[in-house]
Amino acid sequence: MSSRSPGREASIDVLRAAAIALMVLVHFVENLSGQYGGDDGTLPGVSRSWWLPMGLAAPVFTFLSGVSYRLLCAAHRRRGWTDTALSKSTVRRGFFLIGLGFLFNVVVWLPEDVFNWDILTFIGGGILVMEVARRMPDGVVFLAAALVIAVAPAMRDATGYAEYWVAGSYDYDFTLADVAIGWLVTGYFPIFPWLAYPLIGFAAAPSLLSGSWRRLPIGIVLLAASAMVTLGWSALPAVVTGGAVTAWTMFPASTAYVLGTLGATWLAVTVMHQLLDDGDSPRGHWLVSWATPLSRHSLSMYLLHHVAHIWPLWAYGLATTGDARSLWQKAIAPAASVALAAVFVVAAAEICRAADRWHIPTAESFMRWLCD
Amino acid sequence: MTSDPRPHAERSHDSLSGALPAGLPTAAAMHRRPLAGGEGLDLLVVPMESPAASASMTIDVDATAVTVILRDWLTAAADSRSAVVIPLYDCLVAWAPGRAAIGGPPDRLAALEIAVVEFATREAELREAERRAAVLLEAIDGDLATDESDDGRAREHGPALASRYREAVAIGRRLSLLASAVHAPPVHPPTLASQVGERLRDRTRLVERHELARERGELVERVAEASRQRALELSVARQQMGLEWAIVVLLVVQTAILVVDLLSRRGTP
Lengths: 372, 269
Known about the structure:
The structure holds two protein chains of two kinds. Chain A is an all-alpha fold. Helix content of chain A is 68%, strand content 1%. In chain A, strands 1-2 form a two-stranded antiparallel ribbon. In chain A, helix 4 runs antiparallel to helix 16 (363-371). The two termini of chain A are 26 Å apart. By secondary structure, chain B is of the alpha+beta class. Chain B is 64% helix and 12% strand. In chain B, helix 3 (106-148) runs parallel beside helix 5 (192-203) and helix 3 runs parallel beside helix 6. The interface between A and B is medium-sized, with 22 and 18 residues.
């Protein structure tokens, strides 16, 4: 751990690397095998309970974007950055990620999905919001996050969320209304309620990384609240459930899902911080050395893993059937997808290590060059 | 040198900071007196015969030798510039911070001891006030920086500023209490003890030091009060800002709900 940058938290690196690994697994399995051997149109996350932990990847990733932004602000202040310089860098980073997100959608998901509001455009927007949030007292940021969670179901109910989703995929019209509603409510990662994750991560970072177990019960309370909402789901009005039949869904991110994943992420950050961030702990050494490169290049790995499995899928579909999307979710068996995902994660760790060793330009280095 | 100094030695309290210096009469003794602020005074008592009582020795010769010994003993533990030696009416008084010595006929030692301990007590109090004021002066730069810094730093420094203000007031109070003793007029008719006290006060510039310490204390108190007031204002401003931001957040969320409602109605006939 001697090569770690000052102020870099080992626990954050390990959790972000774990989130990336989970995300790779989820995307490989769902994009290559989601409907393999059947035509019921259901994704693994919907139909199999053992697939439930996979739903943690995006919440952890977005929560950590808030925590990391707080650490980044502190690091820049220590280096003597002015408030204006920090604002400019933040806004540039936000727009860079939004632009990269649109480019990624066009290049990977093909132009018709440019406004699907995936996680990159969401995190870019989240960074722009955090530029405002960093000027607010932490209590107000928590209030904003609570409001975002609270009004999201009512918004889904008002917009008719289910009408935008066909066979587990987001389907929208190229109209200003649909695009705007998609960004706010109905897309893959809309502002309501996903903005709560980076906001809470940002506001809670000082407490979570204070080296104390005192905040641990908050995670337990969030999990308990999620369980209560799940148990009482059928009795709740539509303004609370958003018209959804199932209590725990990721698309849309139901209130039970948001509370549960927030609680789990809160507990994970607290526990990992206690275990790994004491500086001399041999327990975490190998884990940290493996995770740090992957975490440092998480953006590049997010882009690369899509290219690695989606482009061959489109190319093979186009070559065999003339329709690029014909094999989506039906290409290979789930076991083969899991194996491919594992191979990719191992290869990705080595690629990240090589990028560090040989100073190979990555998406992160380009972002820093452009925005800092 | 026939007088027994036991009554002084028996009043010894704490452990002494050193052994008796060599070359002193065998009847010499040392004991420790507690002073203000937990400080102690090592008091060396050296009984000496007057010329009238002993024809075999002259006080001038003995006093010179003893003066050298006592000065060396004092400067061994303190800065030589702060050591003061005062010969007065067949007696000898030597003082430095933390150490003092008195020499003279046994019947005058008690009066000398009272005068020296009283002076040492005042001087220790003044020195402690000077030290605390100097520490606060060092912190003034930080306080001024806090005045111009952001809200977060002022929040961190708030308790320290309040503590500093209390400390400045405590120093001012202590110096005020000390003023009557430091500025006391000469006693009339003069006594041996009063003259020793006055000469020690003059030689150690106690009055000037007291004036300077008061000025420093007032400066520190003024700055600490201003900084504390500024921190308080920042705290109030922070609370107001929290309320304002909460209203902004509520308005933004309300606007978002309105926008979503309007957009979702566009498609319906």
